[in-house]
Each structure stands twice: as C-alpha cells, then as structure tokens.
Amino acid sequence: MKFLAIMRDSLREAIDAKVFYVMVGLSVLMIALAATITFKPIAGGDMIAKMATVPLSLDLTDFDPSEFQMGAVEAEQSGEPDAKARGRRGGGGGTGGPIRLMQRVRGQWDIKEVRPVDGAEDLPSSTFRAVLQPSASIPFVFRRPSPEQRLAEIQERFGQWDDVRIVELLKAQHENGTYPVEFRVTDVGRRLWPHEFSLFFGALPISIFSGPVGFQLFALESVLINGFGSWIAILVSVVITAFFIPNMLRKGTVDMLLVKPMHRSTLLLFKYIGGLLFIVINTTIAVGGVWLALSLRSGIWAPGFLISIPVITFFFAILYSVSTLFGVLTRSPIVAILMTVGVWFLLFIVGVIAAVFDQLEKAEEAPVRRNVGQLAATALGMPSGEGPGPLLAVTLLAAQRDKLAPLEKTEYTFAKIIRAVQFVLPRTRDLDTLTTSVMQRDLMMLPKGMRGANLGTRDMTWGESLTVSGVFIALMLGISCWWFATKDY
User: Fold this and answer.
1) Is 202 left (phi over 0), alpha (psi -120 to 50) or beta?
2) Mean of pLDDT over the chain
3) Are strands 38-41 and 194-199 parallel, antiparallel or unpaired?
4) What is the pTM of this model?
C-alpha cells in the first residue's frame, strides 16, 4: 500500500504539471492522423511471383551478405585457416567470397506469365497462375535435374524466403519444359505487396511514399514514434520528473516522509519507480494507439512495434537514474535536468562516433568486396557443363586470386578509447538498433541473415545491451540510495 501511495503521489505530481495533458493530447492527435492513412493495393502479382522464384535460383538459408566478403585474403590476413574462418563467420563450406555465392546458386528461372485466376483483379487476396521456365545452365551449376526433381524443388522452395513463406503454393505441374503453378499470397507476403499511400482517407495522395506496405509501416513507425516522437517524449519526461526528487527533499516534506516506518532506500526507489509512470503511460498511449490505428488501416497486424514501449521506458530509466542521483546530491531540479541532458548528449556522441568507426572499418573492407567482384567476373566467363570446365575454372580463379589486394585495417587510438568508453556506458544506440532490427523482421520480411545487416561490424545482443545498461542504472541508484540514507535532513 505504501508503494502504491508513493506512485500515486508521483503520478498526481506529474498530472498537476499540466504537461501530462499536453503529451496525451499530442499522442491522441498522432493517433487520429494515423487513423486517416489509406493503404490502397496496386497491381503486384508479377513482383511477388518474381520474389517467390528467387529461392529456386539462390539458397537463402541463413543468407548473410557479409559472408561474401570473407574471402581467402581476409582469412590469410586473420591468420586463420579457411575452416576456422568459416566457423567464425557462421558460413558453410567453401573458401568464402564468390565461392560461397556460387555454392548457393541453384540455377536460374524465368517467369513467362503471371495473371490472376478466373479473371480476378490483381490484388493480394487473389489466386495467381504463373508459368516458370528454367534457363539454360549457368557457370558452375553442372547438375541437370529431371522434371520430377524440379517439381519437388518448386513445391519445397517456391516462396520460401529462409524462415518465412511469402506465398502458398496450391498447384504445380510440368508442361513441355515449363512449370505452371498456382499460388496465393500469405499474410506474411502481403507485407511485401505494393500499396499507394495517402492521408485524410485518400484526399492527399503521397506517391513518393508508395511501395510495399510493410516498408511503409516500418518508415512510419520507426521515424514517427521511435525517432522524433520518442525523443520529444523522453525530453519532456526528463524535465517533468526532475522535480520529483527535489520536491520530496524539501524541508517539511522530507521530515514527514522520514518519520514513517520505511527504509530511506526503499522510499527513494519507490519514488524512482513512480517517476517512470509518466513515460510508461504516455508511451503506451502513443505507441499502442498508433499501432492499433495503422494495423486497422493496413490490415497488417505486426506486434513487433510494441517492443518500443519497454525499450523507450528502459531508455528513460537510464536517464532518470542520473536525474535521481543529481536530484539527491544537489536538491536542484535545474541541475538534475542539465546533468541528465548532458549525460544523454554524451551517450549520443559516443554512439555516433562508434558508428563512424564502424563505417570506416567497412570502407577499409572495400578492397575485399572488389576482390569478390573480380573473382565473380572471372567466374561468369567460365564454361559450364561437362568437360574441362571445372578444371579450367580452378586454374583461372587461382590466377586471379593471386592478384587480389590485401586487406589492411588501420588501428585508430581514438577508436580504442571510444570503444573502451562505450564498453562501460549504457548502450542506448544499441537499443535503438536492435529495436529497428526487430521491426525489420516483423514488417520487411528480409531473409533471417539480412535482418542484422544494419548492426554494423560490431556484434550486439539484447542480453549484453540490457545488462550493461542495467548495471549503470543500479550504480546510479546505489549511490543515490547511499547518499540519501546517510545524509541528515
């Protein structure tokens, strides 16, 4: 009951500031605007059919574009045998680079015709008929499957993008060297269907924003809420909640609280948790409301966006722990606000600089990517089929490989310092990146290996980011509780 009473007092204090009503009003306005958005499907059966055919030509299982940059030169520079390098990168057999790519090639298929069945409209709810035809053999694909084997491959792989299926295959058969199929778009595949975008129930078309509806939702949710919206909500929350602790420590108020049979540390922690209510309520209204409105308007129910509620709350919890510390130390809300914003700016700058060094490392890997292109260009000129093709390929690729530029990476001292600072500070930028990755998975339907492509060259996980940030929060609150428990008031 004491806990609920303190939280109720914190919430009342926030509501009395009147800003709470303004924030709720802005959230309702944003929800109302989202409710006027219209997503109108346009002809897209041909595009979906082409996407569904990709797994017939290329193995997308655990597909990760970065694995093609792990060529023989990089393995030699790292001092690792090819087998170890492959294990470290999580790839399969081969020596990396174009060899991996060629191992993934299954053949080449063309689409001769795509049309809705029974004269229906070209809409995601229609059933489609497509005529597939395997192309002539391509370099390094020496097998010649029978029609029965090709049918089995179509039934297994058509529309199977790694761990998601974008179309449901209804029928497949063989006719004079072609393979007519009938399929329906799945609920997952609908997120890749092109739509026209407009505001105010179609009154204001915005053609530049048209495209796959999942990509549109990703842009809206990541920019509108996780971008500008979250920054504004967190900044306002920092300002409002900065007064909670100093107000509690005012003469008279603190005397009345300290006479209660409650440990001082418990009192401060309850007050801290009560302050989190401000951001929790506003974030839940904004994120939940916008998600519900966009889901109703688009017909796409992707719950990944709702992860923004605990992530934004946790981000604010990091900043509020700093505000609590300086509120206890100085009893000044102004100092608490300035120091909290200063720490926020520091975390932002460290994250940006670290990202810059990530990009510099990628730029230095450009020669390796050029090596891949050189080897791939050589491979495309190789003869295929039976005969001396494989032997000639090995000879020419070996000669080309000897000309590759070595991978040389620059060791920046400042980068090491930034990495060390980032190691001990909360991973606020990582939280944003990981949230984006979850939304990509839920809305953009990329192959599993490609969803982490935005994570940069550094490995990051939820466990590490939350643990490091949680330790920082515990340290700030620990110092605050110690100071509050030992100070005479």
Assistant:
1) left
2) 78
3) antiparallel
4) 0.77
